[in-house]
Amino acid sequence: WWNNAWTAIEKKFSEIRAVVMFNTSLDHYNVDGYQPTALPWKWSFDSAFQLAPASASFNNLIFKSSLLNPSVSSSTTLLPENMRAVGYDKGVHWFRNVHTGSVKVLKSDIRQMKALGINTVLRSIPDIYSRNFFKIAEAERLCVIPRLWVDLPISKLMDADCLEEEKKRLLHLVKKFKEKKSIIAWNLSNDVLYQIETSVSKPDRYVYQTNYIQWLQQLIKNIKQIDGVHPVTVTVIWNDHANERMQLYNNFVGDASEFFLNSEKEKEFPSSLQLPVKFSWRMVDPSLWDSLQVSNLIIPSWQDQQTAGFASLNGILDLYGRKKQIFDNVNEKWNGEANENVYTAIKILRPIKLPFEGQTLVYHALVKDDSDNFVFATKNKKQIRFEWYLVHTDPYGNELSIKPVGNSEMLALKIPAYPQFYYLYLEAISDNRVTTTKSPLGLPLDMNTIK
Hints:
alpha/beta; 8-stranded parallel sheet; 5-stranded mixed sheet; 25% strand; globular
């Protein structure tokens, strides 16, 4: 095949002036509907000169290799290979937020990020602190991927006027921020197909999916018309049904530069998965990084958050800026600095009772002693402070609010209404380091879920 190709170039297609070879086992250029499979070849750019027929006229041809390594994932990306990124929405949702985005706070956080090795931040826009944030990011030479939240609840997906209005809003943001020198890409951060999957039953689901996919593809085309420089990425949430969504995105949203596959929950994390082209693991909880063996992963959140409408506890800093163990784990992985801080493993001992509204249940903090056994914290001699929080969730497990309920080794808690929508969150604090754990309020009805 190789010799025939060269003969054809030399004798039949004299207009060919360049040869581009792709160094990968996956051919990215296929007709629509064809799903490529890996080809069993090993390619070397140098071998092009050795394998070409002697009659080949190298003087008249320009050779260029795509420089892809066949030993790595077939996913393609336009993002920097040395990207070390974190989600940073501190102060974005300002109403009753425990944090502000003042110049002082932004400078302090960004400099602390850079000390950890972070060079890229994903931040939702717009917010009241956007002007200060981009000014500081540029001064600190920090790259930014603005997150554009696609605000399309299920009720609006079949309304053409709402779809057009949302597209205009997002395109206006691209026009407004595209000249910011710190921006390296755009990210459409709401996986609407995931919302459809969890809210709409078949067969209606197909209609909603089709409507949204067509709208999304046109939106990305319009973004690229406004800003042809920066790649457009799309967030995809991983769960047990993500393969179907990935196939829809892959087949019908071809203008997206990359799809960010996010997996923040260990119970939903796949042990092995062959990703389609353009799909990359990105926003993944650092506790799962070692099992992925993938570079350029994104820390989901810099710091825990609490606002009037929602909360999150997936930061590498807690609400008060204290460093969680995962902070030092990231520092060790990225910078090779050994973790010399001592973190005490903790657990919550809950009563063997089903929780009912109005009753009072007693919970105990357990710590691991020098013999590697868990004992009551009251018997532990280590200088540890405890803080208990009651976390309210929605039916899907998303945190809505965080309420402090105690600060000792034991907690007597009055059970709220609908206890199935609450859990306890415990922090063990030593100096500026924090160990965390969480537990439901009581024994679940399904005994097989007890951990």
